[in-house]
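ARCHIVE CARD
Drawer: 12
Card no.: 0347
Subject: one protein chain, sequence and derived structure
Cross-reference: see card 0346
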Amino acid sequence: MDKPNTEEEWDIWCKEWDRVGHQEKLRIAKFYEISYDSARHWRSDSGVPIRKQERGDAPVEFPRANVPMLLKTATGISTAAIIGDTHNPYQDTEVVKTVEDFLEQLQPEYLIYNGDINDFYQVSVFSKDPARLGKLQSDIDISTAMFKRHSMTMPNTKKIFVEGTHENRWFKYLQDKAPAVSKLRSTNITELYKLDEFDIDYVPFERGVLVNGTFLILHGDIVSAHSSYTARRHYEKHGGSGICNHTHRLGSYYKRDRFGIWGWWENGCLCSLNPDWIQNPDWQQGFSLVHFKDNGRYWVEQLPVLDGRFIYGGDIYGGN
């Protein structure tokens, strides 16, 4: 659909935009084949005065913040593989391939991408290598290629993407209207990652996924000095049980009280342990399998990757 041109067309378009709630605005943007952010810019640049809400209009709907996506697993026991912090293009390519080969063999019921799949180096607030500034699209293409592989090798696995702090960098960058935006084919995370094309559900930053009402999966925004310290802080912040990424460390924290036994886990990373922007970081590679029973019970298996290899069910994966 073409962009409005005449004053009358703009008036009609803006009147409809002002009238509807957030979900309808998303549909309008999709109808015009633009991103939601672009549609907002259309409205602000139109010059049409904002229409006051008339009596009888439905109230404007805003997305609810900090409400997790609810996931109810199938009857019996289901397995979710949770990976994250690949930080493409800083991923450890060999480790990622080893994990992918394993997951193709395992065919889990769920695959959770727990944030920071792409690094978004070019839009960070830190000093940047000029040679990398023009490579944002090619960096993102590494991530979409990974999603495409997984859609082919695990066609029956339900896939969920949880936004991380580095994807959230992009949202903050867009707010500043930086010129690098013009280099990209699209602007929001779901479009950049082609999540709809690969049938991957999207969960906004720090909402997380609550599985069977008992286990919270989120990227996290807390980092402590040592392994497991962050897991404990997530328990203190959220209560219950869950798993986070973000720290690039593996760890676990357990707590028993009168109501039961609770646990939080740190999920490691799948990025290189020797990136060019930090020296000798205290990181550990790894990922997790969480086995869920539909009654709310769960079992967490952490799989540390050591020198490119991990063990599961008595078999060693990776290496020579």
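Annotation on reverse: The chain has two domains: 1-63, 69-317. DSSP finds eight helices and 14 strands in the chain.
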